[in-house]
Write a structure and sequence with these properties.
Strand content of chain A: 15-25%
Shape of chain B: rod-shaped
Number of domains of chain A: 3
Largest sheet of chain B: none
Largest interface: A-B, 44 and 35 residues
Distance between the termini of chain A: 27 Å
Strand order of the largest sheet of chain A: 12-11-10-13-14-16-15
Helix content of chain B: over 70%
Number of strands of chain A: 16
Radius of gyration of chain A: 25 Å
Oligomer: heterodimer
CATH superfamily of the largest domain in chain A: Vaccinia Virus protein VP39
Number of helices of chain B: 2
CATH topology of the largest domain in chain A: Rossmann fold
Order of helices and strands of chain B: HH
Shape of chain A: globular
Number of domains of chain B: 1
Distance between the termini of chain B: 46 Å
Structural class of chain A: alpha/beta
Largest sheet of chain A: 7 strands, mixed
CATH architecture of the largest domain in chain A: 3-Layer(aba) Sandwich
Chain lengths: ~475, ~70
């Protein structure tokens, strides 16, 4: 018995739609897109990209294998499920940069075979661990001689401008992109660039000139439409040149505030001794070995020490979340360097990604999207309970709701990190005690074990809701 | 930022002041107009860099041969 449902984010492109049935993902190719799809497929382009891992796997199903009637469909394709769907406003700088380069590299390779991408949505790139993969094969279509790069504006708004915001001003793209799902408008970016950053050929042409042209066009009379429709053509060399130049520019960008952050050049700083770290890592390994989760989330993952411990213990795939941009960049660099099944993402746990977009269903929020088998939250709860004034029972309630089993570290008030948080403010947390924490946890789950891991009394609580 | 680039930029800024008004079909029109303006430059840079690499490769081939013949 199938239970097909259409993906609520898959409505813009009339050439096909995505359907889900449990763990299985299907994509229709509607009759209107048949010719373009067949042209691309018959050139062998799809197989080449899939085999290289550039494009998500795609298996064309025979009609007898179709899991339902798909009115108007010419083909049905099955894709493997991406372990965790993430959005560009959850990516760090280096993840967005990696996705942008993936998009451009794919375009450059396709262009050599007379195929182009019809759009440039950053949402079409997903990560499997640290590896970017393009998920929308219906964006591929044959090149038409002399045509312009149709996705250029979208590429600017969804990839280039968010990267430039951080590279030129040191402001991260996440909050802005989350507030505007089309990305950062070129005209808006042009307004916030400091003067000294404007004196660059690339910035001038891609941002300022483009913004100026938008203004000019907005003010133009209707009679000028014919001029814009004129017989301008973009030569093949120019098309390829634009792609290559953007690629080489984007590859050189780095955050203005932190510089390039690469795993291996990073010195660890811990608030407690190495033995305690070793004990904590072992506890996570033991937990993962006992639970063997397919998906585990690490809330407050920092640079990924305990995510890696969970992988070592037997977790199949770990999704990490942290509020610190630099930490996410470092964790991503670490995952890439060691090719780990690990995806770190940016998250403000006090204000997680919401259900948003068209009908508030186009992009799923953290809660609806995060279906996992296990969680760990180390040195984390006090950032919500003390740092953000969330009552302790609510913190525990939310943490326990994220996964059926997990490990939560309780950080007592006398710990140096909590003391620092309270150094310049009134202590309005009389109920912040280990007893209150344990009680709140017990009200919602069984406490499997307790392990004290620091001299200050930090304690790991293993809970199980089952 | 090289001086040449800055001068080029200044020239383009001045040219912009006298740009004719273009009509507006949708927000993507500016992107197409931009491609029309910088596409030629992108093509020229690609061609120049291609020839530069060919000349460089030829030079190194020549240089390599000389070194080879000198070692004989």
């Amino acid at each position: 018995m199938t239970c097909l449902s259409v993906n609520p984010g898959s409505f813009r492109d009339p050439s096909g739609h995505v359907f889900e049935d449990g763990d299985r993902i299907y994509r229709t190719v509607q009759e209107g897109a048949r010719v373009a799809y067949e042209a691309v497929r018959d050139r062998g382009v799809l197989d080449t990209l899939v085999n290289a891992g550039t494009l998500a796997g795609a298996k064309e199903l025979s009609r007898s294998e179709w899991p339902g009637d798909f009115p108007g469909a010419a083909y049905v394709i099955e894709h493997p499920r991406i372990p965790y769907i993430s959005y560009p406003y959850e990516w760090s700088f280096s993840q967005l940069q990696t996705a942008a380069l993936h998009h451009l590299d794919m375009q450059i390779a396709l262009f050599a075979q007379d195929v182009v991408l019809s759009d440039a949505s950053a949402f079409n790139v997903q990560f499997v661990g640290p590896q970017p993969v393009f998920i929308d094969l219906l964006s591929l279509r044959p090149y038409r001689e002399g045509e312009f790069w149709q996705g250029h504006r979208q590429f600017c708004e969804q990839f280039l401008n968010p990267l430039l915001l951080r590279a030129l001003t040191g402001v991260s793209h996440n909050a802005w992109f989350r507030g505007r799902l089309e990305g950062i408008a070129t005209a808006d970016l042009a307004r916030v660039l400091p003067l000294r950053k404007r004196l660059s050929w690339n910035v001038y042409t891609q941002v300022l000139l483009q913004a100026q042209l938008e203004r000019t066009a907005l003010n133009a009379p209707d009679s000028a439409i014919d001029k814009a429709k004129g017989s301008r053509r973009l030569s093949r060399t120019a098309y390829a040149g634009l792609l290559h130049q953007l690629r080489s520019w984007i590859a050189r960008l780095q955050p203005a505030d932190t510089g390039k952050t690469v795993w291996g050049e990073y010195d660890h700083t811990h608030t407690y001794s190495d033995e305690e770290v070793v004990a904590k890592k072992q506890a996570i390994r033991d937990f993962a070995a006992a639970v063997r989760p397919r998906r585990l989330i690490d809330l407050g993952c920092n640079t990924g020490d305990y995510s890696v411990a969970a992988l070592e213990g037997g977790a199949e795939y770990v999704i990490g979340f942290d509020f610190d941009q630099k930490a996410v960049d470092l964790a991503f660099s670490r995952a890439a360097k060691k090719d780990l099944p690990y995806l770190p993402l940016w998250l403000d746990a006090a204000n997680p990604s919401p259900d948003q977009g068209w009908r508030q269903a186009e992009r799923q929020g953290f809660g609806r999207r995060t279906k996992v088998d296990a969680m760990i939250a180390l040195a984390f709860e006090h950032h919500l309970a003390i740092g953000r004034n969330v009552p302790l029972p609510q913190v525990v309630d939310w943490l326990v709701s994220t996964a059926p089993t997990g490990i939560i570290e309780f950080v007592p008030k006398n710990d140096s990190t909590v003391q620092k948080m309270l150094a310049l403010r009134e202590d309005i947390f009389p109920d912040y005690t280990e007893e209150a924490f344990a009680q709140a946890l017990q009200d919602r789950a069984r406490i499997v074990s307790k392990r004290v891991v620091s001299s200050s009394g930090r304690t790991l609580f293993w809970y199980d809701r089952g | 930022m090289k001086l040449g680039n800055q001068l080029g930029l200044l020239a383009l800024c001045l040219a912009m002041l006298t740009q004719p008004a273009y009509a507006y079909l949708d927000p993507g029109t500016a992107s197409l107009l931009l491609q029309g303006i910088i596409g030629g430059i992108a093509a020229a840079i690609t061609v120049v860099s291609l020839y530069y690499n060919r000349v460089k490769a030829a030079f190194f081939r020549l240089f390599g041969k000389r070194e080879e013949s000198a070692s004989k």
